[in-house]
Amino acid sequence: MAIELPTLLLIPTGIGCSIGGYAGDAIPTARLLASASGCLITHPNVMNGAALYWSDSRIQYVEGYGLDRFVIGELALRPVRQQKVGLLLDAGIEPDLRQRHLQVAEACRASLGLNIGPVVITEVPLEIKLQKGSSGASWGELVQVDALLKSAEKLKKAGATAIAVVTRFPDDVGSAVLSEYRQGRGVDPLAGAEAVVSHLLVKHFGLPCAHAPALSSLPLDEGVDPRAAAEELGHTFLPCVLVGLSRAPDLLPINKESFWESSRIPGSLHVDQLGAVVAPQGALGGEAVLACLERKIPLIIVSNPNLLNITSHSLGLNNDVISNKNIVVLHASNYVEAAGLIVLLREGISADSLYRPITHIREVK
């Protein structure tokens, strides 16, 4: 059997991807690619399904800012058996809704055996504001940054090794944006703002982190798209976050002086071990993809419609450039095909041998 091929799966947040733009609808994709690669590194947007989740020891759950730092070589990932997940709750959450979130945490302790606690409530409401970029992608603003960081610092000092944060998001029950999202035609209006919160915490504290929004329950809608249905099942979106963080890998800082020391830590993952990165066509302008191209990590581009238009053509990844720079770029019409390409790379099979017509070996003069 071939050795593992650590693979990075990226499906950016808040850009309306057909797969991965909703409530955990990319989990089947992650499971498939984890099986094909033996080791999949991905981010909460892929794995978070509100009340639904999937735990797989082959999948490493890493927040987006941490993923970027991993790919540029500033962090290593150390798989763990268990994290102690601190719970950070926004003071803006109403008492009844706060109690629902605490009940989720207690249920995950009692029924799933997760190590959760302590709990910290911010001193003031954090005040989240939702926005939309010119491309149509969702975005947001956090007003009380200092209050968030102060509460996270308390959790870290109290022994938390990972942080689940829940902030009160604005209710917009009657909005056209929310209605379109629930019916599978729009962009997740919360995702961009969620990323702002989690990026900030990982950047400042270097701990695994993920976010769940607190919202009032929505009225019943029989037309909800299956991809968004996971968000209709309970009072909170917190269960998936607690499960994901419970075994999220430690984030180990790397610098030139400590690189060789950290590389000797048993089981740690470094960017130089990556065998492939999988990303949607159109969404190739992110730091992680560009860093992987710079390091000549094979890129598998998958057709997964979204709002962005930064394509392989935009990046100039034509056949001549790929050949001259010794970059491997493979195209897949879906994630099932992408899984086959991962197996191809894992087994060391030349892609040229599987396509027809097959060309002659090129003579260099």
Brief account:
With 365 residues, this protein is α/β, with parallel strands linked by helices.
How would you characterize the overall build of this protein?
This protein has helices at 27-37, 44-47, 64-71, 95-112, 145-157, 176-182, 191-205, 238-246, 259-263, 287-294, 319-324, 335-347, and strands spanning 7-9, 40-42, 59-61, 75-78, 85-89, 116-121, 128-132, 138-142, 162-168, 209-214, 250-253, 276-280, 299-302, 329-332. It is of the alpha/beta class. The chain has 2 domains: 7-79 and 251-354, Rossmann fold (3-Layer(aba) Sandwich), CATH 3.40.50; 85-246, Rossmann fold, CATH 3.40.50. The strands form 4 sheets. It has a 6-stranded parallel beta sheet. A hairpin with a 5-residue loop joins strand 7 and strand 8. Helix 3 (64-71) packs parallel to helix 10 (287-294) and helix 4 (95-112) crosses helix 8 (238-246).
